[in-house]
Design a protein that fits this description.
Na+/H+ antiporter like fold, alpha/beta, elongated, Alpha-Beta Plaits, 8% strand, transmembrane, transport, 64% helix
Length: 669
């Protein structure tokens, strides 16, 4: 069977691998590598790919999936929370850029339609590049990161109207007003259908699909919704892109949006890469070198104007000069949607091939410059802050208020994957101890029931990076994986360590044989059910032989100390973990002093814990304050939380001093 297109894709992906690998080494975003791949492989490069039209068809699928995922990532709640930076900051940046480039283009005798198109092309920024760079450097939650996210959201929203307006800029419509009116009526009708689907149809369909627990069925259903809505809008004369965006919005209002996003992202990334490769194929390198001075002039104008306008948006919102500089240089490139708008402008005759080639050359250059501009932006901000003229802009009140937020600002929190018996117990303990936490669960009925009770739980597949990132994995302290699926647990542990290498991972597994792989993937603590079941079985057996419970607890502690030390893998680990390995039978344990226990009212010296029990009190918690290394005259009170260091058996022996249960009291060993 002869498949010529297959050989074309072999060339494209093979060349992409080489280019992206090199770009990764020099820390240039992959999107620039895809553009360069297209330039090299295209008809104006080495001519390695002949089937450019077939590649463009595949690229159109990438555009559909790109807009679909943007719709999935947007929600009414998110827009309300960021309404001022989205609608005020976004409007200042977008409409300010359109206006400036419209005037600039008119000065060079371009028609009004062409000038407005140039404004559209300059208005958007590259979401992929900006968010990727700041995500890698943990700056998404910074003031400039939040404003950038808000402005990019507004750009994404306004890209749809700009795309729809491009055919009218050619001036080919005899009656522009009536055409726009018909278009608006169609748009309203489509929105009405979308509202009905999102309220009454799609949630029910997705709920029934999710209950089957078939990942394949869920993914196919998600893509079917996307393509169906896109086809509907195309049939009524609107764009496929608009339909894909609306399909994303429909699903975004359901609790299954994160899982849908995680499932579609791999397809989106592959097909979107083809889109950028196809754009690179269109660039005429001979035109670039023949008009290099003009290209450089346009690049300089784009970066200068866009940086100043985007920075002005931050100033309008009340942010300081530093935030404005970081934001301005980050948003100074041309965005993904501009390529779509430019291609539509070329197809509709708004601009000619020369202007299109100039746009492509300048756009690719701005994207390539962006990573380096963002790295230099702190130094540029420092330099500008040294001038007195900018002194009033150096400290602004909004910078502090931007740090506030709900769970999006969570730090040092606990992520629980799975809400079965173990997950419920852990959530209850975290709530009691006032530990900030969030739960990821795959059962939709469990999620709905939990939300009604006010439990911080959401539906999602934690094997997908998008779901873990939604739970703020980057700033979490502990991840507890308490699901029965061993394969899924391994994928979650691996992904978590890639997203946050410093997070402490506790994983549950069924069998001891599975612990080695989980530890290899990065889990610090692995709790095998098989091992704990063995302990519980011998505990029940010994109880039936009337062995004292405190003796059984000591035996269980010894078995855990010995067993878990044997389960530890010899590997390169940090000094703290190495210390834990060498003293695996010792631990820091916390115990609350119960009212009426023998320790109430006594000093640490009177209790003689070190002499009689072999344990050391390293800290005492009282009324939210922790007293480290308390001296011997420290008087204990009911409700105090004692942190004791010692062997598990010794700590167990001492517990009777702090409880009112006679069963726990025993003489020191």
């Amino acid at each position: 069977m002869d498949l010529p297109i297959l050989s074309e894709f072999v060339v494209i992906f093979g060349l992409s691998i080489a280019v992206i690998f090199i770009f990764h080494k020099i820390r240039v975003p992959a999107i620039v590598g895809f553009l360069l791949t297209g330039i090299l492989a295209g008809p104006h490069g080495f001519g390695l790919v002949k089937a450019v039209e077939e590649v463009e068809i595949m690229a159109d699928v990438g555009v559909i999936l790109l807009l679909f995922t943007i719709g999935l990532e947007l929600s009414a709640k998110e827009l309300i929370r960021l309404k001022k930076p989205v609608f005020v900051g976004g409007a200042v940046q977008l409409f300010g850029t359109i206006l400036v480039f419209f005037i600039f283009s008119r000065l060079f005798d371009y028609s009004s339609g062409q000038a407005l198109l140039f404004g559209f092309l300059a208005a958007t920024s590259c979401t992929t590049i900006v968010l990727k760079i700041w995500q890698d450097s943990s700056q998404i939650e910074s003031p400039h990161g939040r404003v950038a996210l808000s402005v990019l959201i507004f750009q994404d929203m306004m890209s749809i109207p700009m795309i729809l307006l491009v055919p009218f800029l050619a001036g080919q419509e005899a009656n522009l007003a009536s055409s726009l009116l018909v278009l608006m009526v169609k748009a309203v009708a489509v929105l009405a259908v979308v509202f009905l689907l999102s309220r009454y149809v799609v949630p029910t369909v997705l709920l029934n699909v999710v209950r089957t627990k078939s990942r394949e069925l869920f993914l196919i259903t998600t893509l079917a919704i996307c393509l169906s809505i896109a086809f509907l809008t195309s049939e009524v004369g609107l764009s496929l892109a608009l339909g894909a965006f609306l399909a994303g919005l429909i699903i975004s209002e359901s609790e299954f949006s994160l899982s849908a996003l995680g499932g579609v992202i791999p397809f989106r990334d592959v097909f979107t890469s083809l889109f950028f490769i196809s754009i690179g194929m269109l660039l005429n390198s001979s035109y670039l070198f023949a008009h290099l001075p003009m290209v450089l002039l346009v690049v300089a104008a784009i970066i200068a104007f866009k940086a100043v306008i985007a920075g002005s948006a931050a100033i309008v919102l009340g942010y300081p000069l530093r935030t404005a500089v970081l934001l301005g240089l980050a948003l100074a490139q041309i965005g993904e949607f501009s390529f779509i708008i430019a291609k539509l402008g070329l197809d509709n005759g708004v601009i000619g091939n020369d202007a299109y080639q100039l746009f492509l050359a300048a756009s690719i250059a701005t994207m390539a410059i962006t990573p380096f501009a963002m790295r230099l932006s702190p130094a540029v901000a420092d330099r500008l802050e040294s001038f007195r003229i900018f002194a009033p802009l150096m400290r602004r009140p909004t910078e502090k208020s931007a740090e506030s937020g709900a769970f999006t600002d969570a730090r040092d929190h606990l992520i629980i994957v799975g809400y079965g018996i173990s997950g419920r117990s852990l959530e209850r303990a975290a709530r009691t101890a006032d530990i900030p936490h969030v739960i990821i669960e795959m059962n939709p009925d469990t999620v709905r029931a939990g939300k009604k009770k006010g439990i911080p739980i959401f539906y999602g597949d934690a094997t997908q990076d998008a779901v873990l990132e939604h739970a703020r994995i980057g700033s979490a302290r502990v991840l507890a994986v308490v699901i029965p699926d061993a394969a899924a647990a391994r994928r979650i542990v691996e992904s978590a360590k890639e997203l946050n290498p410093s997070i402490h991972v506790v994983a549950r597994t069924r069998f001891i044989s599975e612990t080695e792989e989980l530890r290899r993937l990065g889990a610090e603590d692995v709790i095998p059910e098989e091992f704990e079941t063995a302990i519980e079985i011998f505990t029940r057996v010994l109880c039936n032989y009337m062995i004292p419970r405190q003796q059984i607890q000591c035996l269980a502690a010894d078995m855990r100390a010995e067993g878990y030390s044997l389960l530890r893998e010899e590997r390169s680990i940090s000094p703290l973990i190495e210390l834990d390995r060498r003293f695996s039978d010792m631990d820091v344990s916390g115990v609350t002093i119960e009212p009426g226990s023998s320790a109430v009212g006594k000093t640490l010296e009177e209790l003689a814990l070190r002499r009689d029990y072999g344990v050391t009190v390293v800290a005492v918690g009282r009324d939210g304050h922790v007293e480290p290394n308390p001296d011997g005259m420290y008087v204990l009170q009911a409700g105090d939380l004692l942190y004791m260091f010692g062997k598990h058996t010794e700590v167990t022996n001492a517990l009777g001093l702090f409880t009112t249960s006679n069963e726990m009291k025993r003489s020191p060993s």
